[in-house]
Amino acid sequence: MGRDANLLMGPEHVGMHGHMGGPNDTEAETRERILLAAASLFAGKGYAATSVREIAESARVTKPTLYYYFKNKEDLYVQLLDHANSTFCQLVGSALSVPGGVRDRLLAFYSTVYGLFVEHLDVVRLIYSMFYGPPGAAPDYDFQRTNDHLEGLMHQVLQEGVNAGELREDNLEEASFMLLGMLDSLSCLLVAQPQRPALNVQDLGRLVDLVFDGACAVLRSKEGDR
To answer: Which CATH number is 2-214's, of 1.10.357.10, 3.40.309.10, 1.10.1740.10, 3.40.50.1970?
Structure first.
């Protein structure tokens, strides 16, 4: 479970990655362990089937300690998703702000986000279960603000590409749709086939090139190499 520390607690807490707890824990470390335990159990068993007792035992804390940090199971669930969303948005913003052209920035974006998904698959599985699980199986959570934030950043990057002469303006909506759809496909593939070897930065770069250049350009290039 320690693999999820960076996602849940934010970049400033990377040094606590994998911490298993002890009598000298800070409050932040204890809270982190509870969040990590909850993420693993919610993803594996579902929200309804997971008890507060199981979360406390997995986090190696008492139930009174858990209730010191969270009002109840629903509060824990919501705060878990709040942390994940906040960190996701911070990392996406940083990745898309790197210097370079549109392709360079998009490659940084996909490398960062895909690496985050690989490292924190429990949280990705949990979010998928919310979208595709039966209604009422978990508390409602509004992801619209995160989606709007991501779409806004993508549009901004592509518009800057238009301003720099890298893209045609009449392709912006379609390009954004394809690029965000690629992100959905990458996360879905990880959830559906976790045993599949992870993509590397070269693979991700080829996917970005395919969106910009088209399949025909790739095929012509291969034929020309023969």
So the answer is: 1.10.357.10
159-166: long-range pairs with CB below 8 Å, 24+? 160/102, 161/101, 161/102, 164/101, 164/102, 166/101, 166/102, 166/103
CA 177 – CA 159 distance, rounded (Å) = 14
What is the reported pLDDT for 17? Answer: 39
Evaluate whether 118 touches 190 at the Cβ level (below 8 Å): yes
Judged by DSSP in three states, 34 sits in helix
Handedness of CA 56, 60, 62, 67 (dihedral sign): negative
CA angle 138-85-23, nearest 5°?
85
Q: Is 48 helix (H, G, I), strand (E, B) or coil?
A: coil
Domain ranges of the chain: 2-214
Residue of 146, 147, 145, 167 lying closest to 158 (CA atoms): 167
Find the distance separating the first CA and the last CA of the chain, reported in whole Å: 48
Query: For the chain, what's the residue count?
Result: 226
The rounded distance, in Å, linking the Cα atoms of 178 and 66 is: 42
Of 25-29, 30-34, 195-199, which range is least confident? 25-29
Place of tokens 């707890």: 21
Task: Kindly tell me if the per-residue pLDDT of 206 is higher than 70.
Answer: yes
The span from the CA of 24 to the CA of 17, in Å, is 16
Tokens of residue 42, six digits:
């919610």
